[in-house]
Specification:
mainly alpha; Arc Repressor Mutant, subunit A; Tetracycline Repressor, domain 2; 2 domains
C-alpha cells in the first residue's frame, strides 16, 4: 500500500504533547514536571502518550532535539545571508540576543537540562554535549573564515561569552547583558591579530 505525504508528518497529538512539554520543561524544569501534568495540559490520553513516547525520557530528548533544531535553523539563516564572515558571526550573536530578550526567557535549555542530568552516561546528558560540540565546531568554522590561526580560541571565547550571557540574561537587566555580549563578540571578530601569540 502506497503511503501518502501526510504519513510522514507528526500527528497533532504528538505535536501537542511536545509543544506542551517543551513549554513546561523550559519554564519549570524537567524533574519537577510529571507526565500527568503534561497529559492534562496537552489534553492527551496516557495511551496516546505512550504510542508516541515510550517514556518521559523520550519526551525530554525530543524537547532537546527541537531546541537543537531551532538553534541550527538560526545559524543557517545567518550563514545563508551570505555576508562577510564577521557579519555572519555577529548575526549568530544577534539571534542569541533575540532569545535573551524574549518574554519568558529562562536561560539556555541545554545548560538547564544538563544541571538536572549530571551523569555523563545519561542519554539527556549526551544530547546536551553533542549539541554543544556542534555549536563549538560551527563557531570555530565561522571564526576560521575571519582568521584561521586564532579560530579555535576565538570560538571557545564566543561560547563562553554566550554561556555567560544566557546565564545572566534571566537574572539581571537583559539589555545590559546583551549589550555586553555583543561588545565582546564584536571584539572577537574585529581584532583577530591581537589574539595571536607573540
Amino acid at each position: 500500500m502506497a503511503s501518502s505525504a501526510t504519513d510522514t508528518r507528526p500527528s497533532e497529538a504528538r505535536l501537542r504533547l511536545l509543544t506542551t512539554a517543551s513549554r513546561i520543561f523550559y519554564a519549570e524544569g524537567i524533574h519537577s514536571v510529571g507526565v500527568d501534568r503534561i497529559l492534562a495540559e496537552a489534553k492527551v490520553t496516557r495511551a496516546t502518550f505512550y504510542r508516541h513516547f515510550p517514556g518521559k525520557e523520550d519526551l525530554v530528548l525530543a524537547y532537546l532535539q527541537g531546541a537543537d533544531q531551532a538553534i541550527r535553523g538560526q545559524v543557517e539563516v545567518a550563514v545563508a545571508a551570505g555576508g562577510p564572515p564577521a557579519d555572519t558571526v555577529r548575526a549568530v550573536a544577534a539571534s542569541i540576543v533575540e532569545g535573551i530578550r524574549s518574554a519568558g526567557f529562562r536561560g539556555c535549555a541545554f545548560l538547564n537540562a544538563v544541571a538536572e542530568y549530571p551523569n555523563p552516561g545519561h542519554p539527556v546528558h549526551r544530547v546536551v554535549i553533542a549539541h554543544r560540540q556542534w555549536f563549538l565546531d560551527t563557531i570555530t568554522t565561522l571564526m576560521a573564515r575571519i582568521d584561521e590561526t586564532s579560530a579555535e580560541a576565538a570560538a571557545q571565547h564566543f561560547v563562553m561569552l554566550r554561556d555567560g550571557a544566557m546565564a545572566a540574561g534571566c537574572l539581571f537587566d537583559p539589555t545590559l547583558i546583551c549589550d555586553t555580549f555583543l561588545r565582546g563578540v564584536d571584539g572577537l571578530v574585529r581584532t583577530p591579530a591581537a589574539r595571536r601569540p607573540a
